[in-house]
From TrEMBL, chains A, B:
UniProt GO molecular function: ditrans,polycis-polyprenyl diphosphate synthase [(2E,6E)-farnesyl diphosphate specific] activity
Cytoplasm listed as a keyword: no
SUPFAM superfamilies given in the database record: Undecaprenyl diphosphate synthase (SSF64005)
Protein's name in the database: Dihydroorotate dehydrogenase
One matching Pfam family: Prenyltransf
InterPro entries: UPP_synth-like (IPR001441), UPP_synth-like_sf (IPR036424)
Lineage: Bacteria, Bacillati, Bacillota, Clostridia, Eubacteriales
Superkingdom of the organism of origin: Bacteria
Species of provenance: Alkalibaculum sporogenes
Gene3D superfamilies: Decaprenyl diphosphate synthase-like (3.40.1180.10)
Record bears the keyword Manganese: no
Family stated for the protein in its record: Belongs to the UPP synthase family. Z-FPP synthase subfamily.
PANTHER family, sorted: DEHYDRODOLICHYL DIPHOSPHATE SYNTHASE COMPLEX SUBUNIT DHDDS, DEHYDRODOLICHYL DIPHOSPHATE SYNTHASE FAMILY MEMBER
One of the protein's GO biological processes: polyprenol biosynthetic process
Amino acid sequence: MRLPEHLGIIPDGNRRWAQDRGMSKEQGYDKGINPGLSLFYTCKELGIKELTYYGFTKDNTKRPTVQRLAFTKACIDAVKLLSKEDASLLVIGNTSSAVFPKELLPYTKRQTFGNGSIKVNFLVNYSWEWDISSICECNDTKPDLYKNIHSSDISRIDLILRWGGRRRLSGFLPIQSVYSDFYIIDEYWPDYKESHIHDALNWYNKQDITLGG
Amino acid sequence: MRLPEHLGIIPDGNRRWAQDRGMSKEQGYDKGINPGLSLFYTCKELGIKELTYYGFTKDNTKRPTVQRLAFTKACIDAVKLLSKEDASLLVIGNTSSAVFPKELLPYTKRQTFGNGSIKVNFLVNYSWEWDISSICECNDTKPDLYKNIHSSDISRIDLILRWGGRRRLSGFLPIQSVYSDFYIIDEYWPDYKESHIHDALNWYNKQDITLGG
């Protein structure tokens, strides 16, 4: 079976999940932490080489404060849990903004935990405009775009999985996503099941990868 | 009904369509011209304000010469047909390369035909790297990315339709696509039907547009 090397994870639907259960929207976010860890274990076991989680974005921080605090805490908790695992971990986002959580600053340089067997990237206060704007400083007429973005340590993505049914990127790593395959799961992220990964990989195995050729 | 203002069109599957009929691959391309014109009429009638066709890319030009010549001719013919309609027409792509067809150079500055009732963009010898690399020349620490790319005259895209079943962007306008919804049609482009558009618009009407918020 042809495995993707790098999976992009868009864990959407936490608020809708909470509302469906009569909870307030912000109560959905911490229900996404265990799914993230389960997915990590499954991918590591399967031999996936790199995982990128879409934590939260600058766009997301415009939401009500109670939500912003809840998704920020969920991201902090998730990164701390991942740092106890066997992974090479990096948090990427705009750290110069007040909404970037100080607790995650130590992770904004890649660190190896355990044997660093799988590369894990976690986007926190990420913005596609912030990411790409650094191309402006490259002073090169034929720039290598992959090298000149803020997220240059994140590889090209083979397969993007999005939970919650929406069929869009919502600003997720536009440069690394130019050739990615997209796989949409209708269930909300807190309802993550291991079978979602297997179904996505079976689908990916049948795709013809051309890189635009 | 909430209509998208700008549709992106990825007309894929011409080669597979030809092969299914025992034709050689390159014979599929000119079967995509009439569908493109039908789609134009339907969108204009519906009141769509802007259409962008994915003609061919720099990546595509690596294909066998017989195919390159066939898709180049199909794009020239399509643009010439569109120039007889009521549209504001622009061809965008890297004109400094030898594979850019000279016949289309007059269209690389936007021209109004008829009343120019609908904005139509046609990507020819397009490359996402070429498009974005011009950000490098902007000399501004906080650049407006939409204004500094080569395709700055193409607006943000609301809905991208791709024929031929593949679920990927294949390098299509990465900046204008960051918030776009994706709608995939399994049928090949030469099998275009007006119902594809209506189905896509009905689907789009039910989506919740957040622009990442």
